[in-house]
């Protein structure tokens, strides 16, 4: 049998038909890609080439009232590397150089260089631009990149550290004013869209779209740097000497309620905040709650004088103890029954006489006066982290609490709240919302002063003046605050020594020692409050806190150039029978 091959022409025709079919498919696909779907592929290609880069805004500064920098932003660099371009043989050498220049761990750098599955590894943030430039120009260091950023600096270190707060790696405020005013300080980042090749390098001559960043605004505080320094120094020394857990000082302007100093000890060093215990992140002057003790007696006095159930010259027969329901309450020192004027009882800080006056006022009116002075309510004015303290409703007071509240036990406040009480007395009975921000800059850089604090009359001017004279007696020869006296100036103030409630132990343990007052007593300009928590060497406010008051007030009135009034303290009846 003979096999015959098909006609060559037929095979060629079949081949041409097949080729035509295949080519028609390619042609159709080409028409689809270049015609119908061209825009889709063009956009996809553009997306592969185009990248959006963030242009960081420069964070605004925080300054003291005189414009001295407390927190500033300076230019920096983020240094990164493409590990795929670093040969394995030279990694140890390059890691050693980079670790030395960037202040990083050599093993950490070496591990990042070994990650050859990626084109990007961040090596360090906040690098000095000079250092970054030197690294980029070094021949032995291939594949490095540097991105312009900013870093936060705190020129004053721990000055008002917990009040100012700090900024995290992402550029957001994480505490204090940095957090409270973050949106204002941070500004708004810009962005830029650029075209890059496969190696991540920008393609020359290609177009880019840029939205400019809006820099943050500056915030000017009411804090005076020099007075803040003096306050921190004085309270830190007393904390060390008395072996206290902590201490606080507040300096406040009487007429505006602007906070001139807000010091804590120990304080937070802002340049090393990551290494500090978290307890130092808290601004204790505004957030630490404690029972005030005898500094609270001015409120009882105010309630009694406003209700007209006593006068400064009302005479009490005062024993050294008084029964209140199931409790016996005592004065700090044992004594026989004494005839004391109300003024003298305040000067000598008699718990018993204060309870006797409070009983004439009644729990409801005393509670209302405490509320009027700001107890139980967080103060406004923008102080970050300010707490409300604890003021139980008078209808829930225990039997003994109805007496102890009169002399500052059974009610809790912050140092800021107590300083505000004495600002109210010194200001003729008008309470002003405490202020911490003096003003800000607008978009044009123009300073815009902050609105003044809300004013509220709490007691009459007559009552305020009567209390001021009583407080001046408390710093006199018969008072408990003699160590607060300042030569040449009339000083009014009150000591406080309270049992301290320890939340961790769940019971009272140790003491809170305090002193708060104002000067000049007859024309008040400044309030200073000092508090020491759980001192181990001594515990009376007149012994520990009064000298701090004197140091800080003396420095502040000299710094502010406040002259003595030149007037003498009025002659008042301090003893019964005079």
From TrEMBL:
SUPFAM superfamilies, alphabetized: beta-lactamase/transpeptidase-like (SSF56601), Penicillin binding protein dimerisation domain (SSF56519)
Keywords: Membrane, Transferase, Transmembrane, Transmembrane helix
One GO cellular component, as annotated: plasma membrane
InterPro entries (alphabetical): Beta-lactam/transpept, Beta-lactam/transpept-like, PBP_dimer, PBP_dimer_sf, PCN-bd_Tpept
Similarity comment text for this entry: Belongs to the transpeptidase family.
Residue ranges crossing the lipid bilayer per the database entry: 12-31
Location of region: Disordered: 188-213
Location relative to the cell: Membrane
Protein name from the UniProt record: Peptidoglycan glycosyltransferase
Domain Penicillin-binding protein transpeptidase: 247-553
Keyword tRNA-binding: no
Xref: PANTHER family: PEPTIDOGLYCAN D,D-TRANSPEPTIDASE (PTHR30627), PEPTIDOGLYCAN D,D-TRANSPEPTIDASE FTSI (PTHR30627:SF1)
Top-level taxon in the UniProt lineage: Bacteria
Molecular function GO labels: penicillin binding; transferase activity
GO BP term (any one): cell wall organization
Any Pfam family the entry gives: Transpeptidase
Basic and acidic residues: bias regions: 188-201
Originating organism: [Actinomadura] parvosata subsp. kistnae
Penicillin-binding protein dimerisation domain boundaries: 54-203
């Amino acid at each position: 049998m003979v096999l015959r091959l098909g006609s060559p022409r037929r095979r060629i025709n079949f081949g041409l038909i097949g080729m035509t079919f295949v080519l028609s498919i390619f042609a159709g696909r080409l028409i689809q890609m270049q015609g119908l779907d061209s825009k889709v592929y063009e956009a996809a290609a553009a997306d592969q080439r185009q990248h959006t880069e963030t242009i960081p805004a420069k964070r605004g500064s925080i300054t003291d009232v005189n414009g001295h920098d407390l927190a500033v932003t300076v230019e920096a660099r983020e240094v990164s590397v493409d590990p795929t371009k670093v040969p394995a043989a030279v990694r140890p050498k390059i890691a050693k150089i980079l670790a030395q220049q960037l202040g990083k761990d050599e093993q950490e750098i070496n591990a990042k260089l070994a990650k050859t599955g990626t084109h990007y590894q961040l090596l360090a943030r906040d690098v000095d631009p000079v250092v970054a430039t030197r690294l980029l120009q070094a021949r032995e260091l291939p594949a490095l990149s540097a991105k312009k950023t900013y870093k936060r600096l705190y020129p004053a270190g721990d000055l008002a550290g917990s009040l100012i707060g700090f900024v995290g790696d992402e550029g957001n405020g994480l505490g204090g004013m940095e957090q409270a005013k973050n949106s204002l300080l941070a500004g708004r980042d810009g962005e830029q869209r650029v075209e890059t090749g496969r190696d991540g390098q920008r393609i020359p001559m290609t177009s880019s779209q840029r939205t400019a960043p809006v820099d943050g605004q500056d915030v000017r505080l009411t804090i005076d740097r020099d007075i803040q320094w003096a306050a921190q120094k004085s309270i830190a020394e007393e904390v060390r000497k008395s072996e206290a857990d902590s201490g606080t000082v507040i300096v406040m302007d009487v007429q505006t309620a602007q906070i001139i100093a807000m010091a804590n000890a120990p304080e937070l060093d802002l340049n090393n905040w990551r290494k500090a215990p978290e307890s130092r992140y808290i601004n204790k002057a505004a957030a630490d709650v404690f029972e005030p003790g005898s500094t609270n007696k001015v409120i009882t006095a105010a309630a009694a004088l406003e209700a007209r159930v006593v006068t400064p010259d009302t005479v009490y027969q005062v024993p050294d103890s008084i029964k209140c329901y199931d409790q016996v309450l005592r004065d700090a020192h044992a004594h026989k029954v004494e005839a004391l004027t109300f003024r003298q009882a305040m000067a000598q800080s008699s718990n018993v006489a204060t309870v006797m006056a409070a009983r004439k006022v009644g729990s409801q009116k005393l509670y209302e006066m405490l509320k009027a002075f700001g107890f139980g309510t967080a103060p406004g004015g923008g102080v970050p982290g300010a707490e409300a303290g604890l003021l139980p409703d008078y209808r829930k007071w225990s039997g003994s609490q109805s007496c102890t509240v009169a002399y500052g036990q059974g009610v809790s406040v912050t140092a800021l709240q107590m300083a505000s009480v004495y600002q109210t007395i010194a200001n003729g009975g008008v309470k002003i919302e405490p202020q911490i921000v003096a003003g800000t800059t607008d978009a044009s850089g123009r300073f815009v002063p902050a609105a003044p604090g809300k004013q509220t009359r709490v007691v009459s001017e007559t009552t305020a003046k009567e209390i001021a004279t009583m407080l001046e007696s408390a710093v006199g020869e018969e008072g408990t605050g003699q160590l607060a006296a300042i030569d040449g100036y009339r000083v009014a103030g009150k000591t406080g020594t309270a049992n301290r409630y320890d939340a961790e132990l769940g019971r009272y343990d140790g003491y809170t020692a305090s002193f708060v007052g104002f000067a000049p007593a007859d024309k008040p300009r400044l309030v200073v409050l000092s508090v020491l928590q759980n001192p181990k060497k001594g515990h009376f406010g007149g012994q520990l806190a009064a000298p701090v008051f004197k140091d800080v007030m003396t420095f502040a009135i000299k710094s502010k150039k406040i002259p003595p009034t030149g007037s003498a303290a009025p002659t008042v009846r301090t003893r019964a029978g005079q």
